[in-house]
Amino acid sequence: MIENEETWKSICPCGCGNEYTSISGTLKYGNDSELDFLAALMMHGERNKHIWFSFMTGSWFEDDARDCVITIHTWRDGDNVNTNVEDAEESPWKKSELLKKMRFLSRDEVASQEGGKEWAYDCYDLLAANHKDIYGFLLEDKDFA
User: Fold this and answer.
1) How far is CA 55 from CA 19, 36, 85, 107, in A?
2) What is the pLDDT confidence band of residue 46, given thresholds at 50, 70 and 90?
3) Helix, strand and coil in the chain, % to nearest 5
4) Which end of the chain is less enclosed by CB atoms within 10 A, N or C?
């Protein structure tokens, strides 16, 4: 179940001038688990749709109490959907005021944490199952309304 959902428009940080839709919310799952997320539904060119996700977690490090952020990028390549854990430098939130106080995890940090990558992909799958509009943008030949 998705709670506290908000949607807003932003201008693509790559300099192309395209407007994109951002969605934030909280995904409730399992018995008492929840995940705060951001999603950026972006398009470059006529059919180059892709989505950036940021999943906010608690701290992963004993010496750093900041909440951590895992960045995932997904895009279509013909009939295939590609999904990768990415370094935050590529994401639209790398300079976001909203996330300045959080620690963006690198791809290597996520991969080196036992169960980190699996947890990230499990959350991705849960969000896909619970927020059909986000994936409708990626999988269908229509814009997000």
Assistant:
1) 22, 6, 11, 13
2) low
3) 25, 45, 30
4) C
